[in-house]
Amino acid sequence: MKTKLFILIWLQVSVVMVQAQGFVNLNFESATFTAGRLGGTVSATNAIPGWIPYYDGFADTYIVSNGYSLGGPVINIYGTNNPVSYPPVQGKYFMFLQGGSVGGAHSAAIGQTGLIPFSAQSLIFLGSIGGMQITFNNQALSFAVIGTTGSYTIYGADISSYAGQTGEILFRTPAQTGGILDNIQFSTVAVPEPGVWSLLGLSALLVGGWRWKNRGAA
Predict the structure, then answer these.
(1) What is the extent of the structural domain holding 186?
(2) Domain count for the chain
(3) Is 156 exposed, middle or buried (0-12, 13-18, 19+ CB in 10 A)?
């Protein structure tokens, strides 16, 4: 019981930090495009508000809804009815980035600029990221697996050296790589050994899932 209470407090602190520092839509649940549209392009403003999509390093204004790549780079927002049967990570939406597989080095990325919370020690996110790269102001962030579930992995990156700085966090998939991404959070807790995070991370996800389920039923 104490462990669950600690995790719930930890999640609340993380969310407050994010909202207070200007980063938005880190769980990709703010999408406003028409649900159920398959494989079509959608405005990034409506699909991933707060984020900028990049194709081959160039900012664009669109991404794809529930689609897949035929060889080029693609930035997807997937819902529960996606055509490739990926299970949802948390909530209704998650991101899938895929670098191009033909015609040279083509990358897909999403980025957002904001102030890293002054007390942030780590950046936590969920998914299955393959060869994805993560940078802050073009500086690579080293990350590691800190827990697993049946359908996705929990990752943690040390962000402490950038606390209090303003810049862009970028999630990028180079050519011939791809990855699922969801539920990004800053935390005041430093990234400990993977074994410790396996317990804490899974407990946090269980609490988060319970809160989401009950909010939807309200």
Answers:
(1) 2-217
(2) 1
(3) buried
What is the C-alpha separation between 52 and 11, in angstroms, rounded?
26
CATH of the domain at 169: 2.60.120.260
First to last CA, the chain: 24
Altogether, the residues listed in the chain come to a count of: 218
Q: Computed from CA positions of residues 207, 143, 89, 30, in that sequence, does the dihedral angle turn out positive or negative? A: positive
Strand pairing category for 62-65 and 74-78: parallel
Q: Are 63 and 53 in contact (CB under 8 A)?
A: yes
Per-residue pLDDT tens over the stretch 136-150: 999 999 999 988 888
Of 98, 75, 97, 79, the closest CA to residue 87 belongs to 79
The token pair at 158 is 């040390």
Which pTM does this prediction carry? 0.79
Render pLDDT for 134-184 as a digit per residue (tens, 0 to 9).
999 999 999 999 888 887 899 999 999 999 999 999 999 998 888 899 999
Report in angstroms the alpha-carbon separations of 148 from 4, 80, 127, 186, 206.
Answer: 18, 21, 10, 19, 13
Backbone angles phi and psi of 90, in degrees to 5: -145, 140
Tokens of residue 217, six digits: 């039923």
